[in-house]
Amino acid sequence: MIQRIAIIGLGTMGPGMAARLARGGLQVVAYDVAPAAIERAGSMLGVAEGVLDALGIAVPPAGAGTVRFTDDIADAVSGADLVIENVPENISIKADVYRTIDSLIASDTIVASDTSGIPITKLQAHISHPERMVGMHWSNPPHIIPMIEVIAGEKTAPHIVTTIRDLIRSIGLLPVVVKKDVPGFVENRVLYALLREAVDLVERGVIEPEDLDTCVSWGIGYKIAVIGPMALLDMAGLDIYKSVSSFLNADLSNRDDVAPMVLEKTNASKLGIKSGEGMFSYTPEQTKALQGERARKLVAVRRILEGRE
Ligand SMILES: NC(=O)C1=CN([C@@H]2O[C@H](COP(=O)(O)OP(=O)(O)OC[C@H]3O[C@@H](n4cnc5c(N)ncnc54)[C@H](O)[C@@H]3O)[C@@H](O)[C@H]2O)C=CC1
Ligand SMILES: Cc1ncc(C=O)c(C(=O)O)c1O
């Protein structure tokens, strides 16, 4: 039974995951190599807990869990039943973490990666006892989005997938088991198909970035939260999909590299909210207000989708 969880990496994803797991009654120890990340994560915890209260996520009868921060990786993983690796999307950084923890954990400690899409089979090559490694892909913001993908690599033992799926379910979240270890799994294959086309349309001057967001959020996003893509095909009619896709698919972006607009911005350190500028610009005050407003709206929508309003 999983009771003690170590989270390695406290950037965008780590603090929200820690808060959500603790709310589910689990004992979390959270570590980052950067002291500033640990400090920031500590201050984000209270914010995430407030959002969990607003979502109405109840503490289990046995009581809430805890989050403890540490700057010592051995302290973080020692005695853990599950380690969730949550460091940057780079195989060599992830492999370094696996090498470091290998001698610090028991051979049956489950090691999960929150990778956005590196095949688990590739990551398993860097850890001993690869049968205990599994993909556990959360969605951002992790304390609000309830769906988590679970992915087996070629060497993952089937019972590890079941254990992680059951853990996710036991704390009131929604596991989706992905049946093949394809790059990007399912969520990001679908998201990146959309993002590739969106970036291409803005880059070609077909639409302004703000208008692209209005079009997708109100034309597609709002609808798709209620009617998933497979159900949408039935609602529109497969005959319509057949006719439109027969001429449109060939015209959609099929670029297989990173779009120049994205390279230009990342080369200039314009990374989005985290650097103050990306597709749009953000002052620190605007960022704070935006994050609060987005959390409030996501909470309200989720409560309605769950039939709780
Ligand atoms: N940002 C997103 O929307 C999502 C990201 N992911 C995935 O989750 C993982 C983490 O992503 P983010 O939180 O966005 O990254 P991030 O770059 O915001 O944070 C990564 C953290 O890892 C720390 N770190 C780097 N090397 C480390 C090491 N050796 N030991 C311990 N900590 C170390 C960094 O100091 C940093 O705080 C990536 O694999 C990413 O693809 C998954 C779902 C959503
Ligand atoms: C752009 C982007 N890339 C990856 C992920 C998750 O792996 C997300 C997300 O969860 O929102 C994302 O927005």
UniProtKB/TrEMBL annotation:
Q: Which UniProt keywords apply?
A: NAD, Oxidoreductase
Instruction: Identify one Pfam family in the record.
Output: 3HCDH_N
Site label Important for catalytic activity, positions? H137
Tell me, which GO biological process terms does this entry list?
A: fatty acid metabolic process
Residue stretches making up the 3-hydroxyacyl-CoA dehydrogenase NAD binding domain: 5-181
Q: Which PROSITE patterns match?
A: 3_HYDROXYISOBUT_DH, 3HCDH
Name the record gives this protein: 3-hydroxyacyl-CoA dehydrogenase
